[in-house]
TrEMBL record:
Keywords (A to Z) from UniProt: Isomerase
Keyword Isomerase: yes
Name by which UniProt lists this protein: chorismate mutase
E.C. number: 5.4.99.5
Lineage, top ranks: Bacteria, Pseudomonadati, Pseudomonadota, Betaproteobacteria, Burkholderiales
KW Membrane (keyword) present: no
Length: 110
């Protein structure tokens, strides 16, 4: 799927920091909702995976990082910034998934 730069909302021109912050706050609300949704999928992954060694998948991490870089470039963004943000997100998601994996299996006998 190719993302077309012209089809996505662009940052509006701002004359004051208050305007900049207002737009950023509005975006943060949307981003937070999407990240909550993403986290719910991490819970499902922890439930579905039967082996804790499958929680950390380096090949998938590299695939996502490359995909995010490509999308950022296509959208006229900053690939280094997006990759760094996604790597931090993935690290936090993996830690969460490990906790979920353990929580879901508390009391199970091997």
């Amino acid at each position: 799927m190719s993302l077309l730069h012209k089809d996505l909302p662009q940052a509006r021109h701002c004359d004051t920091m208050a305007e900049v912050r207002s737009h950023i706050d509005a975006l943060d609300e949307r981003i937070t909702a999407l990240l909550v949704e993403r986290t719910h999928y991490m819970s499902q992954a922890a439930r579905i995976k039967q082996d804790v060694t499958k929680v950390h998948d380096q090949e998938r991490i590299e695939f996502i990082a490359a995909r995010v870089r490509r999308m950022a470039t296509e959208l006229g963004g900053q690939p280094d910034v997006l990759e760094a943000a996604y790597r931090a997100l993935m690290d936090a998601s993996i830690a969460f998934e490990h906790r979920e994996f353990a929580r879901l299996r508390q009391g199970e006998t091997v």
